[in-house]
Design brief:
Layout lengths: L2 H14 L12 E6 L4 E5 L12 H11 L5 E7 L11 H8 L6 E5 L5 E5 H4 L13
Parallel strand pairs: 3-4
Antiparallel strand pairs: 1-2, 1-3, 4-5
Amino acid sequence: MTDTVKELVSKCLQARDMAYCPYSHFPVGAAILTADGAIITGCNVENASYGLTVCAERTAIQRAVVEGHRQFTAIAVTCDIKDRFVGPCGACRQVLMEFGSDWTVYLTKPDGSYKETSLSELLPLAFSPAHLAKN
């Protein structure tokens, strides 16, 4: 594990601990690596009106955009499930795809172990901004 991946995994675990999830009790943390080496974190933030809940991955993307980042290389995602690796929901996969398909994704267990995959593998045949280009 490189130092960068180690830091990314560590920060997603820390972000999970900040999750606001009084309804599902399912904390999720995410840490995004920007193209220039910054790490931006996010956690899920639930709402009594369930549809307004925001996932950790989208919180991290939104924070990164506010901070001026638009290019990303990796994301680490974690939750409290210990016996298997859990990936981002479909909506989050689509939001990540908005910023390119070339993401490394680290699906992380609470103990810090992870499985490396890619956004293209998690969302094959994805709809992307390129589909909106005029012919």
